[in-house]
Amino acid sequence: MDDAAAPALGPLAGMKVLDLSRVLAAPWATQILGDLGAEVLKVEQPGKGDDTRGWGPPFLEDGSDRPDAAYYLCANRNKRSIAIDFSRPEGAALVRRLAAEADILVENFRTGGLAKYGLDAPALLAANPRLIYCSITGFGQSGPYASRGGYDFLIQGMSGLMSVTGRPEGEAGEGPLKVGLPVSDLFTGLYAAISILAALNHRTRSGEGQHIDCALLDSQVALLVNQAMNYLVGGEVPRRLGNAHPNVVPYRDFAAADDYILVACGSDGQFRALCTLLGREDLANDPRYATNAGRLRDRRRLELEIAHAIAPWRAAELLAAMAEAGVPGGPINTIDQVLSDPQIIAREMLQVMRRDDGTEVTVIGFPGRLSRSPASYRLAPPRLGQDTRAVLATELGLSEAEIEALRAAGVVAMGGPMRQDSEAERTA
């Protein structure tokens, strides 16, 4: 769809978001806002843009000599790209003018990193008191680690997440593991989007904007949930359990005759139904296993019995029987399998979009279903700087001659590499 023709849709239609971020946590937050209808202007460094544009292969083949990586495409739909070098005074002035008209600004520079350009929260809130300014960093705006850079892998380790992820001691392949997705980044992006929506509601009541401080470490610690509460209440440090659950039994993977399956019995009734299905009513009737607390105490013995009962079954046949009996279970899908799953297809979770050059890109859609104001898919992830000229003309009222002078001076770009990185790109 042509940018100029993209209609304003969704519950955030009319909201203007200035996105000074890159990589994943903050772009994830701004993509959520864009999916919900906000107009998102992604400010990128001329000549390079978001780091993730180069995080491939794979790359989206579009016939150009500089295609975008799949990683970039996952977090940047429903945005327009404007390439401005705000390490230059003229570029910083352009961004300040855009911020003066914005409802929301999101950035993920190191703490204090934007102050030298006059783009920090105090400066921009003074000029636009209704602005909601969201900073996303590894460790937040305060505390002894505030000046450090934060990366998902480090946060997964520092937060305790990796201490409860992986095979337990004494098993083959033992040791801590990170989650197979950058969940600390993604969780922080979600918390940032939630916080921004809360701040919008506050502004509706009060008329005032505010500064939001979101940290990867804080977000991941908040999501230790039951594991942290187990320690706070029980005093025992949680440990790695592989695919087993720290509080519920049986709740793990088991090997069937031809594949692994998942069993997730969350109640005594479901456990009894599983035992009946497996022909092991004796386990259901054993007083040691009558309650979850008992099953947890005798976890190892019980799980071995269940494993022996499951082993002769073919995975598909057992899962079908479990569904019929009301026992929660499922397969361990590969990515290609889940993306072709009939449930995912029925829910329209895959959306085909078309970039301004005609190249098609399939994206995974927004999961929330709003009955009155649904998410929309208006703009495919943009090419670097593809909207610079249009935004400068329509949002700031610059003439063609003024835009061309900025381009000639290297302050802005309409796409394509510059000879060297700017100061802002080098110090991000």
Description:
It is a single chain. The chain is α/β, with parallel strands linked by helices and 428 residues long. It folds into two domains: 305 residues, Crotonobetainyl-coa:carnitine coa-transferase, domain 1 (Rossmann fold), CATH 3.40.50; 77 residues, formyl-coa transferase, domain 3, CATH 3.30.1540.10. 37% of the residues lie in helices and 13% in strands. It has 18 helices and twelve strands. It has a seven-stranded mixed sheet, with helices on both faces. Strands 7-8-9 form a three-stranded antiparallel sheet, with helices on one face. Strand 1, helix 1 and strand 2 form a beta-alpha-beta unit. Helix 1 crosses helix 6. It is elongated. The relative contact order is 0.16.
